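sorry for the late reply, my laptop died twice this morning and i had to redo everyting from scratch. anyway the thing you sent over, i finally got around to it. pasting the sequence first so we're on the same page, its 302 residues, then the predicted structure underneath. double check i copied it right bc i was rushing
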Amino acid sequence: MTRVLVAAVAVLMVCTTSAEDLKPDRQQQALINRGYGMFVHVGVNTFNETEWSDGTLPPASDLPTSLDCDQWVETAKQAGVRYMILVTKHHDGFCLWNSKYTDYDVWSSPVTTDVVSEVAKACRKHGLGLGLYYSFWDRHEPTHQQKDPAAYVEYMKNQLTELLTGYGPINEIWFDGGWAKPDAEWDFPAIHALVNRLQPDCLIASNHTIAIPGKPRSIRQPQDSTAGDPIRFWPTDFRLKDPNLVRRDDPKVYSTPDETGRIRSHEREQVIALADRLGIRGGTRPVLCLGAVLFEGGALGV
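ok and here's the structure:
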């Protein structure tokens, strides 16, 4: 069943590098201190009973009847998380804000609420940090298909400028979908420079950050990573890999809101009950655990 995906994500940190002089910088330490977060994925697919789509679903089908972004964030707060990562655009290209660079967005749907804005306001209200997910791969935008990648890179930079100048402080940006083209065509250095200029405290990474030596477009599983593995997307501030993000047997905690745009009460109670067991309800203390490694140049793997 398709759902608004709300995954509780523990960013759990133990430094495994043997180089004593490699230490997190100020922003990376802030990421470590945030610890426990919630990943929220909602969009046009939610209302079409599909996990992924090809960019042709009509905006008119994006129809939450009781959209309540404040309820998502308040639930996250009670669940003990300290920040939220919101999917602003997935691989289908549908945007959860009113972007002047596309008509494939909420502004073209029956419910024109700017979801990014509402989540940002709710995060400020409840004292949570805000991060954003943005897919490189875009199955709707025509410039994505052009042989010369420059036009689509400009499209991404324009949209990222909207996201990074219109919604207040952004803690992190998670990129994804890099497998759709050769890595160099995303011009990650230019994207990284743009984000740094607009939001100097925002950390940046792309999913599948680490490759297997000798296989530059391969995916190195976190448990197999070793010192010296090649970094596919550089510069990067931390490492991302989500091998089990949407598997039903994954140990993450999922909430499954209905198509009204609210988290169901029994699933809200589930994530809050976990917080009570951990003693973190309301975000009164952090949850920090395993899995960090510092790369040469200051990048942090999580």
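The chain has six helices and ten strands.
thats about all i looked at so far, will dig more tmrw
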